[in-house]
Amino acid sequence: MMKYLHFISCFLAWVPSNTEQTSHLVVSSDSPYCTPSTGSQNLRCDFKNNPQPVYLENTPFGKRNTGERRVYISNANTAFIDTSVCVDRVLRNVNEVIVYSSNSSITCSSGEFRIYNVSINTLPHYISSVYIDGSNVDLLHLNGSQIQNLSIRNSTVRDVYITGVIRAGMTIRLQTSDIDVLRNITVEGNAQLFAYNTEVNYIPKRAIRFNHCKVDIIKTKISHTSNDSIVVCNCTDDERKNLNQSFTTITTGNC
């Protein structure tokens, strides 16, 4: 586990050498590819037919103090996203997205990250809402105490690791997706977990813990588990019955 976390730290700390180049496309209100939305807090950037890499590496709104917080990036070949830039991000139709951190001391307290038809290495660790649709994700490593909504739809995720506890009022939805390894997730306090028509290849020992939660799992297949991969405590009889119908092996114990 320590080696795994060390890999994550090194991975997010890596800054691509291309950022040292003086000539590249930058997500900015001054870019000819970007248009601020009148009367809203959005910046829309469309890089169709331009093969150059795109960089979100600084606050994209420059000196304009109008409170914009959301950036749309569409139709880029490659996009580099710096997690130190604290804005909501929506990416659509991007062949490759590289997320990195240029300053590990900067932590965005919350935010939204949406991707549609994107291949991405990882997502920022501290975000509150995540929407993944029709995309490929290498590593999904999130802070459970920050998450309010996590939705994965029609996507493939290699590794899911959620630290902390997902509590009341938070929702996780997995729909028609493939997950290779579901490494760690704790759901409690009437938080909601919905899984429909999803395949999970492997769940390690005590990787999933349900405590006072609402779980709705339908047509979901898990290929490899150990005897105590899924631990249930303090769930209702109906919830336990639902889980037993979905999983062949469930352990009752301390979460």
Provide the descriptors you would attach to this structure in a database record:
about 10% helix; elongated; about 260 residues; 21-stranded mixed beta sheet; mainly beta; disordered N terminus
Structural class: mainly beta
End-to-end C-alpha gap: 19 Å
Count every helix, treating DSSP H or I runs of 4 or more residues as helices.
2
**Radius of gyration, taken over Cα atoms and rounded to an integer in Å:** 19 Å
Mean pLDDT: 81
**Biggest sheet overview:** 21 strands, mixed
Binned, the helix content reads: under 10%
Identify low-pLDDT runs. 1-22
- The strand count comes to 21
Portion in strands: over 45%
Q: How many domain units?
A: 1
SSE order, one letter for each helix or strand: HEEEEEEEEEEEEEEEEEEEEHE
Shape call: elongated
Topology (SSEs and partners):
Layout: H1 2-13, E1 25-26, E2 34-36, E3 42-46, E4 54-56, E5 70-74, E6 78-82, E7 88-100, E8 112-122, E9 129-133, E10 136-143, E11 149-153, E12 156-163, E13 171-175, E14 178-188, E15 192-196, E16 199-203, E17 208-211, E18 214-218, E19 221-225, E20 230-233, H2 237-246, E21 251-252
Parallel strand pairs: 1-4, 3-5, 4-6, 5-7, 6-7, 7-8, 8-9, 8-10, 9-11, 10-12, 11-13, 12-14, 13-15, 14-16, 14-17, 15-18, 16-19, 17-20, 20-21
Antiparallel strand pairs: 2-3
